[in-house]
From TrEMBL:
Organism of derivation: Paenibacillus agilis
Domain of life according to the entry: Bacteria
Keyword Transport tagged: yes
Membrane topology term: Multi-pass membrane protein
Name this polypeptide is given: Sodium-dependent transporter
Length: 444
């Protein structure tokens, strides 16, 4: 059954797809990796990999979804009937469910901190923000309730469908995200002593570009675009048959790279201007940034902006993670969508409760030397996503019907038949090797 959901415009598709791709990693981890791995040298390598590797993989998911107009599982069934390829769609559903289960935990923390910032309960002179964060994540009631609130917001948007929910929210959140970034960048670049942070972030230093950093850039080149989970298969299935694929794909890749650049420009100049050390991950958002904004004039205002920015980035990614599961259940039926969204949202919330309780200190939620939260992250990022990327590359390279691929390629690069041959060669022989290298490096 062909989905009756459609994006209202190409812009809506680009904003929603970019929102799916732009997540927490692009804002709180990637800039620090850039700064500590050669600055501009790493950023150059990352851009080359993203456009040379990530873009072809993104297009692979686009052609699967747009060619069939169906969600992931049904799309693989149509293109490769009487085969096992549709299990790639099921893999995507499982992957997205696990990912959203612990991603929603972090989303809950952000919701809670956002509320605190708007009520004036976050910044306080001399406060121990590290202890505040520890107290927040270790309190089981706070952790579970905030995660539930984040899942409630996500589900309420997905229930409303593609046009009335995901696209409408993305049209507000994505421009809002970039506007907020511009405000923060202007503030950061007007601080005395900001030049040291700018140099630290962007000055090319190839001597610091290690083999480990290059491998990270390789992995990020496709992970940062949300490929491998078939989310983009589902999103592109809502695109009209006559819409071009090449320009939207380029736009999504460019917006993702731009976001990582803007995050660095907003964070590092301010950190160095205030004599603070750069960090990554939750420590940046929940400990370092509050301490930094506490020292600034109108700090409450700017920390609120940053938290809203993080919340927008987290929610737009969460929409796509929930949508792939809901779409497979509802198959375009609006009545099924409502029921499927609520039940799926509830199921993923319950699945995420152990991750939410991972920092409570209870031994039940710690396996070996890691909390359940970290194990879920490892399973998704280091195992399932690389496998998903590999299978999608091989599917389009070997199994996608040639005539249909030629029809789709006409919307990617009109008149450039030789380009399709090069593209198929990359999907068959080049990209699988790269993905395997990243996969082996990730599990060792």
């Amino acid at each position: 059954m062909k989905s009756n959901e459609q994006w209202t415009s190409k812009l809506g598709f680009i904003l929603a797809t970019a929102g799916s791709a732009i997540g927490l990693g692009a804002i709180w981890k990637f800039p620090n990796v850039v700064a500590t791995s050669g600055g501009g040298a790493f950023f150059l390598v990352f851009m080359l990999f993203t456009f040379g590797i990530g873009l072809p993989l993104l297009l692979a998911e686009f052609v699967i979804g747009r060619s069939t107009g169906k969600e992931a599982v049904s799309a693989y069934k149509e293109l490769a009937p009487n085969s096992k390829w549709h299990y790639v769609g099921y893999l995507g559903m499982i992957l997205c469910s696990i990912l959203l289960s612990f991603y929603s935990v972090v989303g809950g923390w952000i919701v809670l901190y956002t509320i605190r910032s708007f009520t004036g309960q976050l910044l306080s002179p001399g406060a121990d923000y590290g202890q505040l964060f520890t107290d927040t994540v270790s309190n089981p009631w706070i952790a579970v309730l905030s995660q539930g609130l984040f899942m409630l917001i996500t589900t309420m948007v997905v229930v409303k469908g593609v046009k009335g929910g995901i696209e409408k929210a993305s049209r507000i959140m994505m421009p809002g995200l970039f506007i907020l970034f511009v405000i923060l960048i202007i503030r950061s670049l007007t601080l005395p002593g900001m030049a040291a942070g700018l140099e630290y972030f962007l000055k090319p230093d190839f001597s610091r570009l290690s083999s480990e950093a290059v491998l990270y850039a390789l992995g990020q080149s496709f992970f940062c675009l949300s490929v491998g989970a078939s989310c983009m298969v589902t999103y592109s299935s809502y695109l009209g048959k006559n819409e071009p694929l090449g320009k939207p794909a380029l736009s999504v890749v460019s917006l993702n790279v731009l976001t990582s650049l803007m995050a660095g420009l907003a964070i590092f100049p301010a950190l160095f201007a205030l004599g603070m050390k750069p960090v990554e991950g939750p420590g940046l958002l929940f400990m370092t940034l509050p301490a930094m904004f506490e020292q600034l004039l109108y700090g409450e205002f700017f920390i609120a902006i940053f938290l809203v920015l993080f919340l927008f980035a987290t929610l737009t990614s969460a929409f796509s993670l929930l949508e792939i599961v809901v779409a497979a259940y509802s198959k375009g039926d609006s009545n099924k969508r409502v029921k499927g969204s609520w039940w799926t949202g509830l199921g993923i919330f319950l699945l995420g409760v152990p991750s939410a309780l991972s920092f409570s200190g209870h031994p039940l939620f710690i396996w070996g030397d890691k909390p359940i939260f970290d194990w879920a992250d490892f399973a998704v990022s280091n195992v399932m996503l690389p496998i998903g990327v590999l299978l999608i590359s091989l599917f389009v390279g070997y199994r996608f019907p040639k005539q249909r691929l030629e029809q789709e390629w006409a919307y990617v690069a009109p008149g450039w038949r030789m380009g399709m041959r090069l593209y198929v060669f990359m999907l068959r022989f080049v990209l699988p090797i790269i993905v395997l290298v990243v996969f082996v490096n990730g599990i060792l």
